[in-house]
Amino acid sequence: MTGAFPFLERFDDDPVPVVRGLRRWHGPARAGQATLFCYPRLEPPQSAAAAVPPPAPPPAYNAEELAAAVAAARRDAGTEAAAAVHAEMQASLEHRTAAALAALGAQLAACREALERTLAARAAASRDLALAIGRALVGEALARQPLADVEAMFRELVVRLEGEPWLEIRLPPELTAAAEKSLLAIAEEAGYRGALRVLPEPRLGPGDARLSWQDGVAERDLAALEAEAVALVDTWLAEPRQARSAESEA
After folding, report:
1. Are 161 and 152 within 8 A, CB to CB?
2. What is the model's pLDDT at position 63?
3. What is the count of structural domains for the chain?
4. Is 225 part of any domain?
5. 28-40, pLDDT tens digit by residue?
6. Which of 6, 57, 217, 224 is the most exposed place for a label (fewest CB within 10 A)?
């Protein structure tokens, strides 16, 4: 492009003069058609303050709206405070309830242990009383009929031992003379044909007897019988206590 470029732009109001007959040089034009070149208007740059919109005015409340807002805020604050107080009271109640239950459980356990001790003491006292009564009854029975149990034992065994060549029965010395006659009569009634010897044994107590034959011995020992009875009673008393302990642990 040659020659002076005519600047006909006016930087004032509205009209924007153009240069007629001048082709647009910065882009391809359609064949056979001339285009007009227009200069854009130069707008002054806007300031940053003008680009930011002004802040919205604060909301305005009348007296009724303000009173309603204050009342709502007070209600919300009261609800939150009531909820906090309720939660604190609930936690305190649960804590006191748990402490009371724990104390009650400890008291019940102590009462149960005391009851177990009382029952054990009563059972032991009952056992001792029963043993004392049994000893008294046995002593009285031996005093009245000292050979009754010995004769019953011999009568039961002599039938089974009728084939033995000899039998020997040992008794306390004070019972030997009286027992020999009655035991010989029992042997004769049972049909025993062997030899029967009745001998004194100082180591035997009242009511005790020892019957011997060729291949065996049968003995009646009141002290051993009493020990077995005591052991049986103690075992029976221990089993209910163990059952109660198992139930409490379950």
Report:
1. no
2. 75
3. 1
4. yes
5. 545 555 555 555 5
6. 57
128 pLDDT above the threshold of 90:
no
Compute CA distances 45 → 12, 40, 42, whole Å: 16, 14, 9
Q: Over 80: is that where the pLDDT of 131 sits?
A: no
- Judge whether 215 and 186 are in contact, CB under 8 Å: no
Is residue 29, in this structure, part of any structural domain at all? no
Q: Among candidates 197, 188, 181, which has minimal Cα distance to 162?
A: 188
Q: Report yes or no: 229 and 135 within 8 Å, Cβ to Cβ.
A: no
> Using one digit for the tens of pLDDT, what is the confidence trace for 195-220?
999 999 998 888 888 999 988 988 88
Cβ burial of 203 (10 Å; 0-12, 13-18, 19+) is: exposed
Q: Each residue of 38-92: pLDDT tens digit?
A: 555 555 555 555 566 777 777 776 778 777 877 887 777 778 777 888 788 888 8
Q: With respect to residue 58, please indicate whether it lies within any of the assigned structural domains.
A: no
Domain harbouring 187, CATH code: 3.30.2320
Compute the C-alpha angle 84/89/95, nearest 5°: 130
The domain in which residue 151 lies consists of 146-232
Q: Mark residue 154 as left, alpha or beta (left: phi above 0; alpha: psi -120 to 50; beta: remaining).
A: alpha
166 is a domain residue: yes
